[in-house]
Design goal:
380 residues, mainly beta, five-stranded mixed beta sheet
Length: 380
């Protein structure tokens, strides 16, 4: 495993949602510090092409604005048959429980007619796809002002919502956790809870117990786990590669810590291990996105303590911690199986070897491994 590339000056977003479809990564919404999130306006879409290594904004062809979700954060997006399904999230005024899907080929939004038990509006929930179902877990429900530990299932073929009551003790009430699908299992990790259970009393709990929902029998299971278990956190990234669960980063409000670590959970052995990766990776952060395409992971955005104010952040001098956070516009590429060519180029960079005799195309590729700067079309 090797961090092979860093691209600066791209999409600057926090608490956004993204999916990979074919060779492109589609990022929906999110926020940037200082922007207006009270006015309802159409959600923005940005695309990263993994071939050209460039970001570009995407304009929807949808004419009816009621078919387009408003700009939001804390939502989820999943991919199913080249469609991106968006649900939940909020702006500064309200949360949403309307389902939309986006066709990446026609660039059109659709608000389908759905039936069944529609979940209450929320943000900070999780979503994943198993078979032809989208499963929703947890989040913070706006109308009743409570954390959730409920499971909802959406049939992507019939457009029907179902409220699921599984067997067994569910994970604690929480938001900003992760849900990852491996086979018939939905693995839940991390998130922010409260000592009062479903109510938010500002006494936060960051659980590090891994649980999964066996969707074949609708039963919650807490497996016996060994190894180096990650510290509890929220707003981390989680993804599945070769039937193993990986997590990166996140934040623990009790210790006021942003994480930049990488962990792997193997369901076959039920063991956590910390992963050491060579190369220049992302700094500690939270609320970023990551998408997997083939053997490459693309991680971008998020927020971290401003290095100029990190001491104040840790001492909690500021009444509003957002004053000492900085939003990121970088994208990092992690190669799980780097080629011999990539490894050789990495050594050229690591040991600052002479490049004067190398072909121009190799020099260019080495340049992308060191620091590739891309000026975003919307920022000039």
């Amino acid at each position: 495993m090797l961090w092979t590339m860093r691209i600066d000056g791209g999409l600057c977003r926090v608490n956004h949602a993204a999916v990979a479809i074919r060779e492109n990564i589609y990022s929906f919404g999110g926020y940037r510090t200082g922007e207006d999130y009270q006015t309802c306006r159409p959600i923005d879409i940005h695309v990263f092409n993994t071939v050209t290594l460039k970001w570009f904004p995407l304009t929807s062809t949808t004419v009816d604005t009621t078919e387009i979700p408003f700009q939001r954060y804390g939502h989820t997006v999943v991919a199913y048959k080249d469609l991106a399904y968006l649900w939940g999230g909020r702006n500064d005024n309200r949360a949403c429980n309307i389902l939309y899907y986006f066709d990446v080929f026609t660039r059109k939004w659709t608000r389908p007619l759905v039936t069944g038990h529609i979940p209450g509006a929320r943000d900070g929930h999780s979503a994943c796809v198993i078979d032809h179902y989208m499963y929703i877990f947890g989040g913070y429900e706006e109308d009743i002002q409570r954390f959730s530990q409920d499971v909802h299932r959406f049939n992507l073929k019939t457009m029907n919502w179902t409220y699921i009551v599984p067997i067994g003790e569910p994970p604690r009430w929480r938001d900003f956790h992760s849900a990852s699908s491996i086979g018939n299992r939905m693995y839940i990790f991390g998130g922010r809870g409260d000592v009062q259970g479903s109510y938010h009393s500002q006494e936060e709990v960051y659980c590090n117990k891994l649980m999964y929902l066996d969707t074949s029998i609708m039963k919650w299971v807490q497996p016996e786990i060994t190894g180096m278990v990650p510290v509890g956190r929220r707003s981390h990234s989680a993804f599945v590669y070769n039937n193993k669960l990986y997590i990166f980063g996140g934040y623990n409000g009790d210790t006021v810590t942003h994480f930049g670590d990488f962990y792997c959970y193997d369901p076959q052995t039920s063991k956590w291990s910390q992963v050491k990766i060579r190369g220049r990776g992302p700094c500690p952060r939270r609320r970023q996105c990551c998408c997997l395409i083939s053997n490459n992971l693309y991680l971008f955005g998020g927020t971290s303590p401003n290095p100029n104010h990190e001491e104040h952040f840790r001492d909690i001098v500021f009444p509003n911690l957002e004053q000492v956070l900085i939003d990121h516009d970088d994208l990092h590429v992690l190669d799980f199986f780097p080629s011999l060519k990539t490894l050789c180029m990495f050594l050229v960079v690591e040991y600052e070897l002479d490049q004067s005799y190398l072909p121009k195309d190799i020099k260019y590729e080495i340049g992308t491994m060191t620091n590739c700067v891309y000026r975003h079309p919307t920022t000039g």
